[in-house]
Each structure stands twice: as C-alpha cells, then as structure tokens.
C-alpha cells in the first residue's frame, strides 16, 4: 500500500476483493496485477495509477487508518468530508463501509463503526489534553438515509418504508439521532442496516438495492478564556453506492430490473457530476438524479473526498472492473479546495454581525464559487490563492485549526513558489477583535504584510475615496456611501451581489494606504491615480453593462466628474466609416452593412471592437461578400487587436471554425476526408477558384444562404425611409428564422449552433413565426439573450 499526503483533498483508492467462494476452486488467476510501484495497478497490461492500491490482503483496520482516519481529523477541524464506495455489485462496498449489519464487531468491522469509535475516543482524549483550546460542548448526531428507486427513505425514522423525498424535491436532510456513546451508534447502525432494501442476486446474496448515505454531524462549541463562544459544525458523509450491474448478468426482471436501471442512472449521474467538477463547469448537473441532488452538499469542491473503487479479480467481471477503474481515474482529476465553511455559516448567528448592512456570505460564497479549477489559483485580491483568502478570513479558530490553516497555506505557497503569505494566516483576528469592531469590514481587515503590499484592506485606516466609502469611526460602522447604496437598491439582486463582490475585491485599489498629502485633503479631493481610474472604470463597466442604471449614474456613483470616465480617442487607422465611393461594394450592400455593423459599436473599446470584427466576418458571410472586400471598405483590421496574451481564445475558436467549415464543404462534396487531406484544403476564398468540386459546393451553399439574405439587402436598398427599411429588415431576418436551415440561421449574430437548433425545434413544434413577438416569447432565450440578439441584429 502507498500513501498520499494528508493534505491532499481528493484521494482515490482501489480495493480488490478476495476471490469469491463459488470460484475458489476454479484456479483462475486474478486479472489484477500489481506493480513494484505501490501506486500502480495493472489490468490486462494496462497500468492505472491511484493514491492507494489495496490488495485483497489489506485489512479493514488498514483501510480505516490510511483512508478514513485523516478525514476524521479534518471533520474535527471543521471541514466537510465525504467517503464514497463505488464499484460493481458484490465487490465489497458495503463490507468496506461497514453498513452491512453483520460486520459490526471483530476484525471485519467496517468504516462507519470505526469512524464513530474514533470520534468518541478522540473526544475523551481531547478532554484530557489541556493544551488544546477547550471544547466547551461537542454534539454528535447521525442520519442514515437510502435512495431506492429514485426516492429517499429515512432509515432511522419510525416509518422507514415511507419515502421522505421523491424526484423533483429538494432534500433537506433525514432525521438526526443524537449520539452520546458508542453503543447508541451500534444501535442506529443495526436499525438502519436492517431497514435497507436488500435482495439476493446472481452476483451477491445480500446485494444492496439502494444507495446508502450515513452522515455524521459534528458541532463543537468552543469557549475561550474570556468566555467567548464560537461554533464549528461539519459533517462527514459515508456513502455506500449500490453496485453497478448489467441486467444480462444479474438476470433480473420486473421490479428488480427497474431497481437496476435506477441504480445505474444514479451512478451515471455521479459520474457526470464528477466530470463537470473536474472540467470546472459552472453548471454541475446535480439535478440529473435524486442521488446526485442529495449528494450536492458533499460532492463539491469545498469538501475532502475519498473515493474507494472496489473491483473484482475475476475475468468474468473484467469489463465492469475496467469501467470502475476508468471512473476512479476520472475522479483523480478533481482538485478540491476545502474550506471551513461551517464557521462562516455560523457567523450570521452572531447578533452583532447581523446588524451590518451587507452580508458576509455573498462574498465568501463568491470567492468559494470562483474556486473552479480554472480560477482557483489566484483570487482577485492581490494574487493571494483563494484558499488562503478564505482561510485567512476565518477567525476564532481553535489552536489546532489555526495551525492547520497555516500549514496548508505554507505548503501551498512553497510548492507554487508564491510570495510568502504566512503572516496573513498568522494574523487571524480573534473573537475579541471581532467584538471590538463588530462590523463587516473586520472580516477583510488583514494586517498589512511586511512588504507594504496591497494586502492591507483595512478600510477604517484608509481615506475614503471620492465618496465611495463613508467612514464613521465614532459609530464604529464603516459603510458604503449613500450614493452607492441608492444605486445598489436599483440593481437587480444578482447584480447587487456582483457589485458588492467587485467593489470589495477592488477595495485595495480604490483605497491606497494613506499618504500625508492625501490625509489633509477632503475625501472628494483625494486624487485618483490613472490605475485607479482604470480600475473604477472596469468595475463600473462590469457592473453596469447589463443594469438599468442611466449612463450618468456612474459619475454620481463615484461622486466624481464625468471626465474620469472619458473614453480615449479612437485609435487611428483602426476602424473608419465606410468610403463613399468604393467600386468594391454596391451601395445597397454598404447601407445594410453599415447599419448592421456599426450598430452599438464602441470603436474606442478594444474588446468591443474585436467583437465587432468577429461580427463583421459573420455579416460578410451573410451578405455573401468576400470578407477581404469588407475589410478594405471599412478598414477593419483583418486580425483582432491583441488585448492581452490570454486573448488567443478567439483565434483558436476562429481557426477551429474555419476548419469545421472546410470540413463541411468537403463533406458536401460527398468525399470523406482524412485530417491530412483536410489540412491540405485551401481556405474558403481560395477553394472557390481552385477546386472544381469545392466550387460547386460553395455555390450551392452560397445560393441557399443568399436567396434569403439578398431579400434583406435588396429591401434595405430600395426604401429610403429608415423606418420602413427597419421593418423590411426585421421581416427579412424573420424569414431567415422561418426558412433557414441550421447552418443559415447560425449566420445571424448571437446565434450559435445550439440556439439555431432550438429555434428550428420550436419552429417544427409550433409552425412558422408570424411576428417577432412570437420569437421573443420562445423559451430559448435566457437572461438578456433576447435583448442582445435583437440589438446585434438591429431589430430594435
Ligand atoms: N475485502 C473483503 N474481505 C472479505 N470479504 C469480502 C471483502 N469484500 C467483499 N467481501 C464479501 O463479499 C460479499 C459481498 O460484499 P458486499 O455485499 O459488501 O458487496 P457490495 O459491493 O456492497 O455489493 P452490492 O453492490 O450488491 O451491495 C460479502 O459477503 C462480503 O463479506
């Protein structure tokens, strides 16, 4: 057996079960091979690497020591933890987790009873250990539920045969039984295990037909020498998933078969959740099944996760074994960043904190939510790792907890060669500090670091910048200015959160350390540096772009003159109005193009301009004009302006798009291509002149597109009245939506493949769209998508 660091948030282990009794005489050799490297397992000559590889000889006690005991430590420190047993039916998941009531004592005792024993024995030790910060009170409770046929059953309830939650409802928790000693634990474990749905199958005489979740809730009330109390609450989910199974092998029919289908569906949804988490998706498909929705609070990036994949040594189980190993390997990609969120959650219980106008939770959550794999590394605050920020925001931690936080921070920083931040973690405000300030900002007040870096977010010691913050030292209450508050009430709730978040993230920029000169000035006279202006501008842009606030509001918001937001002059030679007498474009084409392209384009904004350039490409396709003509005509740069090094995504997307287009053209010609051939195809404009086959395809495509599009162009040119031109244009676009193919509809700005598909589906369902109102009411638009679509297509 190998080991992984205790600090690693995700641990993946594989355990091979012993040979089944029924096959013991077959003398068949195991399909599982072991490598000299203890982390590597070989199946059919394919190596798989895991944190722990457990052979059949590994005992239950060793499994607990290596995999679960570290989780118990984290649980006591206030982290949420999850241990998940996954694998084929009959591979020992229930045996390992200890949820099968026959193995509650002796050497075969499983994970759950061992965890409970550990918690109770640790409690006694803690009481004896005077060095630790005193735990005034510790409350342990447990809940035990199962998910059977997409319904949740409370195994500890009196009437456990009645489901408590069915699909579509949000699970809020089963009944919690308080535990005071180990005997009570055994009693509830036996009770719950007996109530589980079990059925003998061809593979396992005691096969669990449900996913079981045993949750241990721990709530510690700490009281320091001053009599101040703080609460840590955390939970540990011990999950015994039902075994994946093929109907063919279990030979099930009827109810048993539908059980199997539901089991597999639940497991599939867990796989999807883990995959979405590893990919850093914003949307995690928790709602796909009851199992994933119940595990929503434990299967996230904020908790410690140990996955135990159970496999069989038998050749007949090989495909299931490989599938389990693949599942475990995918889960290995997870990079969780656990937090002691339970303390933060408990802060709101403090009455004094409750009085503060702006909540702590949104910011904490925002930082936490940003901790996706992509964004996890740095927070917006001074490049501090998000983990450090969150941890340094925790306070009134017991000694052990603080030491743990420091250790985590230091490990992380040294490993990534970041500037030393240990003093941030060391300077955690304690309860007394909190009491003395008892305001929202105390959470963000970090002692400034020795280098005088921007770590100092101490609002009360900074000068308020241009009315942004209204300091009132006497009242001990620092707050946003009334101006900001006024506009914040106008913001939609989602935007308000975003606004607070952005402001708070940027406070260090808005409030530089007080200089002697600045101190003598009235707040509204405090000079704004160029970088501050830029920062404020970007904040405002981010916040206000979708908001209903009037344009001049931003000036009032920052109590400053309009020139702060003055846009720089249009860069020369970047984008020019159309030439009036170019032989390249027909006048009607120019009118339509100008209308479409210049609508809402802010030429001074590079980002906006780049967007427009992309749009110009789509529009040129729509008008069937070579893009080079439009580029010449309007002097649009052929490549977007480099905003920053990370702006290559556009280029990548564009090149991918062109490859796809070229591929589609080849396919239209009825020829299958290899990638090599594909690379040899010249770009679209060239193909039309060089390859006869492609020429044909191009013509066909172009004709299709342009028959509809030309109507828009022609109609625009014939009318002189702007209003009637607009209505004709709207009609033309509507016709495109009504008649266009998937590809044609995608030509429209703001319409991607998915949206085009949705529109066509709606068209098929309900018939042609007669008015724009019908289009607007389609369920395909989310948020402000409709608005953006209508603006981009000049429909308003
Ligand atoms: N490592 C092991 N050592 C000893 N016995 C084991 C081991 N693993 C499994 N077994 C035995 O194999 C049998 C099946 O195990 P178990 O019921 O835990 O499988 P399971 O994966 O939970 O199956 P299902 O998903 O169908 O519930 C049990 O009788 C158990 O005692």
Automatic annotation (TrEMBL):
Record family assignment: Belongs to the TRAFAC class myosin-kinesin ATPase superfamily. Kinesin family.
One Gene Ontology CC term in the entry: microtubule associated complex
Name used for this protein in its record: Kinesin-like protein Nod
UniProt region (Disordered), positions on chain: 639-658, 664-706
Keyword flag Glycoprotein: no
Entry-linked CDD domains: KISc
Gene3D superfamilies reported in the protein's UniProt record: AF1531-like domain (1.10.150.280), Kinesin motor domain (3.40.850.10)
Gene designation per UniProt: 101900234
UniProt GO BP: microtubule-based movement; mitotic spindle organization; spindle elongation
Keywords assigned by UniProt, alphabetized: ATP-binding, Coiled coil, Cytoplasm, Cytoskeleton, Motor protein, Nucleotide-binding
PROSITE patterns, A to Z: KINESIN_MOTOR_2
Superkingdom field: Eukaryota
Organism of this sequence: Musca domestica
């Amino acid at each position: 057996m190998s080991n992984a660091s205790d600090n690693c948030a995700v641990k993946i282990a594989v355990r091979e079960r012993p040979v089944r009794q029924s096959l013991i005489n077959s003398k068949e050799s195991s399909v599982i091979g072991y490598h000299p490297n203890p982390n590597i397992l070989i199946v059919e000559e394919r190596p798989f690497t895991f944190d722990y590889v457990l052979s059949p000889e590994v005992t239950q006690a060793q499994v607990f020591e290596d995999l679960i005991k570290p989780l118990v430590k984290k649980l006591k420190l206030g982290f949420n933890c999850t241990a998940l047993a996954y694998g084929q039916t009959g591979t020992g998941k229930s045996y390992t987790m200890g949820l099968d009531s026959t193995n509650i004592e002796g050497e075969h005792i499983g994970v759950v009873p061992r965890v409970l024993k550990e918690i109770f024995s640790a409690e006694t030790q803690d009481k004896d250990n005077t060095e630790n910060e005193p735990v005034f009170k510790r409350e342990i409770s447990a809940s035990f539920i199962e998910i059977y046929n997409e319904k949740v059953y409370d195994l500890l309830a009196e009437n456990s045969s009645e489901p408590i939650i069915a699909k579509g409802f949000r699970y809020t928790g089963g009944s919690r039984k308080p535990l005071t000693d180990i005997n009570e634990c055994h009693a509830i474990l036996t009770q719950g295990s007996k109530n589980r749905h079990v059925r003998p199958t061809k593979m396992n005489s005691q096969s669990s037909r449900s996913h079981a979740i045993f949750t241990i809730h721990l709530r510690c009330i700490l009281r320091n020498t001053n009599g101040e109390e703080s609460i840590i609450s955390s939970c540990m989910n011990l999950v015994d998933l039902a075994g994946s199974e093929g109907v063919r092998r279990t030979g099930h029919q009827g109810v048993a078969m539908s059980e199997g289908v539901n089991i597999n569906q639940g497991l599939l949804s867990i796989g999807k959740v883990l995959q979405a988490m590893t990919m850093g998706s914003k949307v995690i498909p928790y709602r796909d099944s009851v199992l994933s929705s119940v595990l929503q609070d434990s299967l996230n990036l904020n908790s410690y996760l140990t996955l135990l994949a159970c496999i069989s040594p038998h050749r007949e189980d090989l495909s299931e074994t490989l599938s389990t190993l693949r599942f475990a390997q995918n889960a290995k990609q997870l990079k969780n960043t656990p937090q002691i969120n339970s303390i933060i959650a408990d802060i709101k219980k403090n009455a004094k904190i409750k009085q503060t106008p702006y909540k702590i939770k949104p910011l904490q959550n925002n930082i936490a939510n940003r901790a996706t794999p992509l964004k996890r590394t740095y927070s917006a605050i001074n490049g501090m790792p998000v983990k450090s920020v969150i941890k340094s925001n925790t306070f009134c931690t017991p000694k052990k907890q603080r030491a743990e936080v420091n250790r985590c921070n230091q490990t992380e920083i040294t490993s990534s060669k970041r500037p030393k931040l240990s003093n941030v973690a060391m300077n955690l405000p304690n309860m007394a500090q909190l009491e003395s300030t008892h305001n929202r900002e105390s959470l963000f007040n970090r002692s400034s670091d020795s280098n005088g870096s921007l770590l100092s977010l101490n609002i009360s010691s900074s000068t308020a910048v241009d009315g942004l913050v209204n300091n009132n030292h006497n009242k001990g209450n620092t707050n946003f200015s009334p101006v900001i508050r006024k506009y914040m009430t106008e913001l939609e709730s989602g935007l308000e959160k975003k606004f607070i978040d952005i402001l708070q993230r940027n406070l260090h920029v808005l409030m530089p350390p007080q200089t002697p000169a600045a101190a003598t000035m009235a707040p509204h006279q405090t000079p704004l540096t160029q970088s501050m202006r830029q920062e404020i501008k970007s904040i405002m842009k981010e916040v206000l772009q979708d908001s209903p606030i009037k344009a001049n509001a931003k000036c009032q918001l920052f109590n400053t003159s309009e020139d702060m937001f003055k846009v720089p002059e249009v860069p020369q030679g970047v984008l020019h109005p159309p030439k009036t007498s170019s032989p390249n474009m027909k006048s009607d084409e120019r009118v339509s193009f100008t209308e479409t392209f210049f609508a809402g384009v802010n030429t001074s904004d590079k980002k906006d301009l780049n967007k427009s350039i992309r749009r110009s490409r789509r529009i040129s396709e729509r008008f069937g004009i070579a893009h080079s003509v439009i580029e010449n005509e309007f002097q649009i740069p052929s490549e977007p302006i480099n905003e920053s090094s990370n702006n290559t995504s556009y280029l990548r997307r564009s090149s991918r798009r062109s490859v796809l287009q070229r591929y589609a053209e080849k396919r239209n010609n009825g020829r299958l291509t290899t990638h090599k051939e594909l690379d040899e195809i010249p770009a679209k404009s060239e193909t039309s002149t060089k390859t006869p086959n492609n020429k044909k395809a191009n013509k066909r495509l172009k004709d299709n597109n342009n028959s509809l599009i030309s109507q828009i162009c022609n109609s625009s040119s014939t009318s002189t009245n702007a209003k009637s031109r607009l209505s004709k244009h709207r009609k033309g676009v509507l016709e495109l939506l009504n008649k266009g193919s998937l590809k044609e509809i995608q030509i429209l700005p703001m319409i991607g493949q998915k949206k085009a598909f949705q529109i066509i589906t709606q068209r098929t369902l309900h018939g042609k769209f007669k008015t724009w109102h019908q289009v607007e009411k389609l369920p395909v638009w989310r948020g402000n998508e409709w608005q953006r679509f209508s603006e981009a297509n000049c429909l308003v």
